[in-house]
Queue: 3 jobs
Job 1
Amino acid sequence: MLSRVANSIYWLNRYIERAENVARFIDVNLNLMLDLPSGVSQQWKPLVVTTGDLKFFEERYGEATAENVIQFLTFDLEYPNSILSCLRAARENARSIREIISSEMWEEVNTFYHMVQEAAVNNGHHNVSNLFQQLFFHVKFASHRFAGVMDATMSHNEGWHFGQLGRLLERADKKARILDVKYYILLPSAQLVGTPLDQIQWIALLKSASAYEMYRKYQHRIIPASVAEFMILNREFPRSISFCVQEAERCLHQITGTPVGTWCNGAERSLGQLCAKLGYITIQDIIENGLHEFLDGFQKELNAVDDQISATFFSLSPLVSEPPMNRQVQTLTW
Amino acid sequence: MKLETYDPTGYYDELFAGKGEPRASAKPLIDWINTLQPGDLRRSQEAAQIALFKLGVTFNVYSDNQGIEKVFPFDIIPRIISAQDWKGLEPGLRQRITALNLFLDDIYNEQRILNDGIIPRHIIESAPGFLKPCMGLKPPGGVWCHITGTDLVRDRDGQWYVLEDNLRVPSGISYVLENRRVLKSTFPSVFQTMAVQAIDDYPSHLLETLLSLAPDQLPNPTVAVLTPGIYNSAYYEHSFLAQQMGVELIEGRDLVVLDGYLQMRTTKGPRRVDVVYRRLDDIFLDPTAFNPDSLLGVPGLMDVYRAGRVALANAPGTGVADDKVVYSFVPEMIRYYLGEDPILPNVPTYLCWRDQDRDHVLQNLETLVVKSANEAGGYGMLVGSQSTAAERAEFAEKIKAKPRNYIAQPILCLSQVPTLVGEGNEIAGRHVDLRPYILHRGDEVYVHPGGLTRVALKEGSLVVNSSQGGGAKDTWVLMD
């Protein structure tokens, strides 16, 4: 498949997944703030902090009020990771590979973009909170629908695997960021750790990952370490970090034909290392070294994987006049 | 909905022979429209337009911000061409493309037609579309122009004329196919009662045409559509055709010349491309052969082409025949190469480089259409009857400065088709042209039944180009 096309379908899926996760991100905070006892001040800054774009936000908006943060993350076209920007980018990518994806996929992306675009135009004409809750519901649903339509209408070929790869890596990254929000949301005082307010925040986190119900089946009580374990290391829950990177690894090996556990390029090697690490770490290890530090390090490693994928498959640098297929397959020794 | 009072008087109407009197071919359609409630057609029209928008059947407008997409305006009332009418057109189109192909092969090789004085040499050598780097080329099977869109119009008496030929990269077939898809779901019942020729097999014919260009020994040649990219006005069509044929859609940046072959960059390394349906103008194809500033094409492509290691459709150099001065010589080409009389007449054309013609044009600007010889899209033209004195003076100066660049034709009274106009349910006649698509495979010329009917949506306007506010209609060619 053309490198450019592989790149586009990878990013198409990343952007759709990103839009969905930004919606989850804001939605959970909206709900959380509604549940807060009156007198506890609203906290919207943590959302911007975890995006890593606080400086850009402050330059443009100043204070992190609910309205500013929601506007920034939802509709700001100057901000490349807002929901609307993501969908615009997703649509541009889809438009450049319409001949590769199914027409149903294109129609989903096209309709999805126009839906959010219309909401942006109507923004301010309605009850804001109500409008946004509905919008975020539709964004999440449209993202699921896109994934479903892709799964059901596109051949599960190389392009499909690149798309899955993009979606899974994006989901893992955003899961780490969502979990990290808890680090930044401050409890009014240290004595409140383990209180109902603390519990409510952990429940909100689970809900933002659509993980609440599945978590309850896994471990009935809300125990912070167990919540973190479920969201990071659970091998059965499709939105856990571990699940995402392992599935991503499988897709990557489907593309190259190399057996999992071996590697023939930098992408397989870096993702394999990450999978191995997650496969053998415990939640106690993570907590001892700091959850925030772990999540931060994980995001950096994920970026390295993305760089390797680009270099291996998407690079448009001039080709040299010799067979580039001259690869060596090495077996990892354990 | 009543069309009983529709009055085509003064014009040739494609659906009506007289006031309230549908042509035999159109009667079932008109009868059906007459049974509709007021507002039905408008609602169908809006639904169709929304469907096209959702499908993303759009074109880009350059003058707006980059990437602004518009739905090609679409009128719900189709144009109908009787089987008999079509039988008159088809051989004429075949004859024309056959002669044009022989002409292209000749002027890039022996140049007999110039040596014999049928066409003045200076006309060809001064045509911007005449590309010296193509001299001596012999495309596979001797075919230069594989895909043509020839623009036809009908005058007041119903006579067909060829308005121009488009031998470079004619657009529009995707709208033809998509409009039909939408109309079929809007008016399914009418399709059942009228024997309309199906058109869905165009992509198959196109693919066969392209495959026929691949070197014989290749068991599984790679065919690709080459596009300038998503900001090109016809990008939708490029991607649609690639998708419908199941072939790659490539851009210049995907390609490289390597080991003497054209190759595309894939996730598994370079891979050969054997046949390219290029939707890029000649001069952008290869910066080393043509325009050195172009970033759209592939350096070295022409060398690969000349070595016969990649086939291009259409061949580079075909644009010379799009020149409106060269167009005026097509009847001579038909007589010269085929020894036949032209079946389809040209619009009578005055060539401003001829002193006598120029004098006539300058004295009669008000009754003529003046066209720049090398512009498309309805740009660079003057419709005399709808112009101001200042505009005419300006054109007169242009003509005197560069007579070779201008032609003039009498203002034809283009035929019309009933069209939904305004915001309500009013139906009025609007002028149309017709662009049939012709595929030339060497041993066989295929004329796609129908083609793109463009309609001037403004009252009285004779300019049908989409860039000038024109729209499209579905074109139904009836079976016997």
Job 2
Amino acid sequence: MNIEQLLQRDSFIERNARNRARGLLDAGSMRELVGPFDRVTSPWLARQHIVTQADDGVVVAKGTLDGVATVILAIEGAFQGGSMGEVGGAKIAGALELAARDNRNGTPTQAVILFETGGVRLQEANLGLAAIAEIQSAIVDLRRYRPVIGVSAGTVGCYGGMSIAAGLCSYLVLTREARLGLNGPQVIEQEAGLAEFDSRNRALIWGLTGGEQRCATHLADVLVDDDTVQVRTAVAGLFHAGPPAIHRSERYADFLASLAQVDTAQQPAPADVRALYGKGLG
Amino acid sequence: MNTTPTRSNGATWLESLAGSAAVHDWPAVRVVDAMLAGAPARFIAVVPDADNRFPRARNGEVGLVEGWQLAQAVQETIEADRDAPHKRPIVAVIDVTSQAYGRREEAFGIHQALAGAAGAYAQARLAGHPVIGLIVGLAMSGAFLAHGYQANRLIALEDPGVMVHAMGKASAARITLRSVEALEALAQSVPPMAYDIGSYASLGLLWKVLRPSSAATPSADDVALVRTTLEAALADIAAEPERDLSGRFDGEHRAASRRVRELLRTQWDGH
């Protein structure tokens, strides 16, 4: 991207969840479900004297994408770190369940999940975890009919149980600014020590879990610039392709064969992962 | 294999229910085919492996290899019964301390390995395999998502050694900037934050809670009770056509989940 393009680009990262959803749907087609005016807020945050948000950090936007019925589940990373509580989690799972039902009834409906999330909201712990299990179940159900596409742009990244949900998606679209991993760097440092993971080493974090590395190692599918048009074009193209013949989450044989070759005496460098998965998953 | 691993509840219950004739030569993921209610079933447990090649996965954690092996154990079952009218049951014996926390794990995509496992269980359920999760020890966080949380029915033993949670107590306290004491006090008034099985049951996620004399050293009566309950769960699943997780939405503390789904249903088609 040159300076001119940079100045004219429509940043996806700078948009909030609601505007990200709007930017992906056909102009004028977006309708929000269980929106702020329905006032379904987290019953658990208030009990802990934590300020709630009227959409609980998740926007359910229904509309069309290139004319096909599409629901966008957009997680607002700015609210409680994009964490999954009971209400936000039920919004995502419930919408995916309805999309699968529509497909079964002969109405093709597809879904995009915008992952900006640290995973389970610890203040709602077991209900967040349960909701994530339900989201995962619904993704696996829906992806039998139409692709379920995950997008992670930045700046929160995609972590915790929601990274497992991302791993179930038919396709993943990432920007360079995105990070995708199970355990956050700080948690690993806390659990395993500084020698295992230095959470302040940003180059290490992006090198191992950033969007460019995840795409180069076949753990994600399309790398895009932070540009709304590019994100939309990538998503539309993947929907057009239809569900993959085999989902990434089904490739246990390829992954196990690759992992059998890992020298676990060493900590891997990003290039080691590229060499291994470039061969084993290509 | 010359070290003597600590006997885990998972290993104990797997052997009590299914014997020890493992299908695969895998140290941490134990897969045993045995009879349940007079027909073949597959039992799967993750157990500690002191010699694990991946040093962060030696205490019963679900790591990279374990995640993909769970996926294989379940996908094999789906494949074997693809054309069979009767899909064999899968019993996940759950005692998982956590997912593996490490740099190697993140580098090679542990999230994807756990997705392999979770996805396989969900596919098995959707394909018509009765899937039962039997919680006999810890059921923590990502490890539980990978091993058992996709079950048609969840059964838990009520015992001090049995806990379900999104994160270990000490870690959760650090991450939420609270002390362990403050966390425990909060859990008294916030059921989803509690660690005990009684609070967890109030969320409506469990089909049955059993009270054995011991989860760690079960008596013959305990094993008989669990076996009878597994058989009852099979009958319960067979009697219900739904293959989704909707049986979990009725808990007294899940009113908001129900409200959200009700609103979504009414708003989904309308204009």
Job 3
Amino acid sequence: MLFERVGDRGPYFGEFGGRFVPEALIAALDELDEEYSRAAADPAFAAELDRLQREYTGRPSILTEVPRFAEHAGGARVLLKREDLNHTGSHKINNVLGQALLTVRMGKKRVIAETGAGQHGVATATAAALMGLECTVYMGEVDTRRQALNVARMRLLGAEVVPVSTGTATLKDALNEAFRDWVAHVDDTHYVLGTVAGPHPFPAMVRDFHRTIGVEARAQVLERVGRLPDLVAACVGGGSNAIGIFHAFLDDPQVQLLGLEAAGDGVETGRHAASITGGVSGVLHGARSMILQDEDGQTLDSHSISAGLDYPGVGPEHAHLASIGRARYEPVTDDEAMEAFRLLCRTEGIIPAIESAHALAGALRAGRELGPEGVVLVNLSGRGDKDVDTAARYFGLVSDADLVASEAERVSGPVEQTEANGW
Amino acid sequence: MSTTDLPAASAGADTTAPVPAGLSSASALDAARAAGRSALVGYLPAGFPDRAGCVDALRASVAAGLDVIELGLPYSDPVMDGPVIQAAAETALRGGTRIRHVLESVEQLASAPDGERAPVLVMSYWAPVLRYGVAAFARDLASAGGAGLITPDLVPDEAGDWIAASDEHGLERVFLVAPSSTPARLASTAAACRGWTYAASTMGVTGARTSVGSAAEGLVAAARGAGAERVCVGLGVSTGEQAAEVGAYADGVIVGSALVRALSDDGVAGLERVVRDLAAGVAGARG
């Protein structure tokens, strides 16, 4: 079946999940749940989504073996699931197309989204343009500056980008603002939540739209290698790409599932975004999950070089998989991720997203443990175009003069939307 | 932790006075009803503009006509709040306001002298209560003399622990209904409330508005029809005129952002002026 395994529907995943939202949103969540259930049982919906995936996204995404990179991973075979080759440059489009189709089915005219690195915002703006929907994207003001290229992309696609300056001005605050918008405009607006977090039915629904990653990859590895991988690695912020690739392997106990969380400067420093490794059970953004919070339940600031992983929570199903031991979650520091980033660029000619570089770092670790007989599947969730500026600065590839010049060209405050000719 | 272990209050309140028993917000609503008017319910975040200032401002507000105090527990991610209350909560958090300080404030307000004392409901997002421990929070809130808790992001479906804890400690629990609530949800929410039901006047977040949602009156009637004993209306009320409009049909009129703004802009004197205007509004609503 295209969607859902029996028993994985939510609203709870063990002790995690649920709906911790204002009453005003319950009706919209119920409507979404019902519409999604109808769509999941409707062959026409599956056929349309399948057509879009093939003809628009470019699915199935290919599997690339990376032997030169693997020399640094204990000689284990390393295979990359190339979600970076999807239209819009990441896995995010899988979920967005599904939710945009649902928006049209519900008769709503407008979508809103939150975005951190900008990939989900770009994907949502893309789907909105494709289907003739209005689109507003909320983005932390800090992120609008570190991902200015994606802000421009969204605006080119016709979306309104709203910089969010409240709280920490990052992804979690963009989510808050999107929820506020949704409460006020729920009649004509659908909130395209970008990860497997949030209130039911989002965690299960978003996962279902991403399951295609794992379903394809499982078949591709079997065909390529003749057996299942020993380990599947994926980066985890909210956790959508990871749950998408993990799910097809849940019933294969011999396959280890490894989620790599952003450890920033190191979990021990407190400047990190590793919610499972360094968090506690709590409530954030509508669901119970593992959260970075203080002893008063206040959400802590997260930190990562990767805007897309810079989130103090994680999807409830990941919290559950960690609690039952089916998947394990390990931290990867900024420096480890950037070393893996550099390595893939130099050994294979592939520039990954910094998010995905966390998974690559995990693959290097795991490969060294497994040795030459091991087979590691890595979800390369996105491409690195958006991160070139960050990486160039990290590695000192641009001169101080260039940095000064590019800073001078940037607006000092939030990125303002101007009435440019024709836009 | 028991509030008896708390350090001495700095707000000038006599914390040695016994906390009066039975100071429920429902009784304040009933008293207002008996007087032929709606009750005025006022919100400020604990710790805003600072801990002592908040308590002083609320005591002055009660003297100016506030019937029920809604004391906000500042939270880092207040999705139901608009910019005014968000900014106030950020101020309170930057000032170091913790849950124990909120409970201290409850105790100081609940033991204020006659004329400055009103039932105190805490309004809190669920994350801080869950982290503190639901049973422990109920115990300490009751021990501080709090009347109960308003939970903007906790629906009864998820509230099993809180329902048990509030029953055990005799605390009021106020859940919200919204214009989008179905008849079935109105009934189940009304049944889960103890004290009263909070009707959100509009689909949106807190903040002053030029008009109160037209759905509010119908929602109050529907909630009553679904079994709600008392229904107060919040979101968007900021003037005496609006308070009069809502007070004509609701058991209570809830005001938040307008009080926060008045206190920010004009201090306690400005806050008292706004409260008097609102109190006059509810007093004249059914004239």
